[in-house]
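User: Please work through this fold.
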Amino acid sequence: MNHSIYSADRMTHLKVVVVALIAGIFVAGVGISARVNSGDGYTQAARVIKAGAPVTTATSNASMVR
C-alpha cells in the first residue's frame, strides 16, 4: 500500500474522488432534509411592527442627540 497521494496510481485517485463525491452528496442531502423538516412548512407570515408613542426619559443625565 502506497501512503503518498503524489505517487498513487489512477485508480487510487479515482477512489478518492468517488468517496469525496459521495460524502458531499450525503452532507448536502442531510442539510436539505434538515431545512425542509424545520416544522414551519412552506407558510410564511408577514409580521408588522408598528411604532408606538414617543418616549422620553426624565431621570437620565445623558445629553439627547436628535
